[in-house]
């Protein structure tokens, strides 16, 4: 019986992996050349940062689907980009935790083991996924690092080369 209880406690502790790992708000690092440009965020959630100046780290809600970020400075053309939302890798941890019970702790060769893992998975993994979905922690916005080279208003610049973005800070 102890052989079944210990892995089950592990699943309980791993429920809502994305919520526990990073919460409902996400940091986005924004930099620009020249420095001191205004950062404006729109439709990024109730508790999101509204304004800041580069270089800065701004906060956005992971639940937002229409979040846009604008970097502007007097004498330069403004640059606006929409952040894209996708499922965070930590969210998948809820399912992986249940699957690991079969792989690591139980042999799952018997009907009893399979039923036990199914019951634990339905209760705790389902609760974790519901928590992650409700809090918005199941999502991640990208890019998480934005570096904008602003173009002087009186010059011709290449549009796509103005923004350098990556999921992790270089």
Descriptive account of the structure:
It is a single chain. The chain is an alpha+beta fold and 170 residues long. Helices cover 36% and strands 29% of the residues. It contains four helices and ten strands; from the N terminus they run H-H-E-E-E-E-E-E-E-H-H-E-E-E. It has helices spanning 2-14, 17-22, 89-105, 111-135; strands at residues 25-33, 38-42, 51-53, 56-61, 68-72, 79-82, 84-87, 139-142, 145-149, 163-166. It has a four-stranded mixed β-sheet with strand order 4-1-9-10, with no helix packed on it. A four-stranded antiparallel β-sheet has the order 3-2-5-6, with no helix packed on it. It has a two-stranded antiparallel ribbon with strand order 7-8. Strand 2 and strand 3 (51-53) form a beta hairpin. Helix 1 (2-14) runs antiparallel to helix 3 and helix 1 (2-14) runs parallel beside helix 4. It is elongated and about 75 Å long. The termini are far apart. Residues 11-19 and 166-170 have low confidence and may be disordered.
């Amino acid at each position: 019986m102890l052989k079944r209880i210990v892995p089950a406690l592990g699943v309980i502790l791993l429920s809502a992996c994305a919520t526990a790992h990073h919460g409902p708000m996400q940091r986005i690092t924004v930099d620009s050349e020249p420095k001191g440009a205004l950062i404006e965020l729109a439709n990024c959630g109730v508790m999101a940062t509204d304004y800041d100046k580069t270089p800065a780290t701004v906060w956005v809600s992971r639940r937002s689907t229409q979040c846009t970020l604008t970097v502007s400075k007097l004498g330069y053309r403004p640059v606006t980009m929409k952040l894209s939302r996708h499922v965070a890798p930590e969210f998948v941890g809820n399912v992986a935790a249940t699957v690991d019970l079969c792989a690591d702790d139980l042999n799952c060769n018997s009907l009893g083991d399979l039923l036990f893992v199914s019951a634990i998975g339905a209760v705790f993994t389902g609760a974790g996924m519901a928590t992650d979905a409700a809090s918005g922690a199941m999502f991640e916005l990208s890019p998480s690092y934005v570096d904008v080279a602003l173009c002087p208003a009186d010059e011709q610049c290449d549009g796509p080369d103005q923004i350098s973005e990556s999921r992790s800070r270089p």
